[in-house]
Amino acid sequence: MAAGWLASTAVVAAAGGLTGGIIGALTEAGVSDEDAHVYAEGVRRGGALLTVRIPEADRARVESIMDRGAVNIWDRGMAYRKAGWKTFDPGASPYTADQVRKEREQYRRNAA
């Protein structure tokens, strides 16, 4: 769900020649390059990316809410790498519906 400020930043990043629009948008927003690649790969595999811009005073409350259903990006990146993934490839095809279903089942089983 890259919408609003992130989507517009991605368009500007792509127009400015930064590699992988979503990667450029995330790194411009302060996300590390390594994490940005994992987030982008997660979106390619059918995941959703939610970002928010909030006043600093609301940060702890919003982080608490978002952490309830958030993916641990470090763990997910390790799982991708263990399966042979190296880095996000902007030319790679998005996952099919069947691949997305299998991906989600895998992580549901691992969380149980």
Q: Helix count, per DSSP?
A: 6
Distance between the ends: 26 Å
| Biggest sheet architecture | none
Query: Over the alpha carbons, how many angstroms does the gyration radius reach?
Result: 15 Å
Structural class: mainly alpha
Q: How many domain modules?
A: 1
Task: Return the average pLDDT rounded to an integer.
Answer: 83
What does this structure look like?
- This protein has 112 residues and is mainly alpha-helical.
- The protein has one domain (5-111).
- The chain is 58% helix and 0% strand.
- It is built from six helices and no strands.
- The chain has helices at 5-15, 21-28, 33-44, 59-67, 73-82, 97-111.
- Helix 2 (21-28) packs across helix 3.
- Residues 1-5 and 7-19 have low confidence and may be disordered.
Quick structural gist:
It contains six helices and no strands.
Keywords, separated by commas or semicolons:
single chain, 112 residues, mainly alpha
Strands, helices and their partners?
Layout: H1 5-15, H2 21-28, H3 33-44, H4 59-67, H5 73-82, H6 97-111
Helix pairs in contact: 1-2, 2-3, 3-5
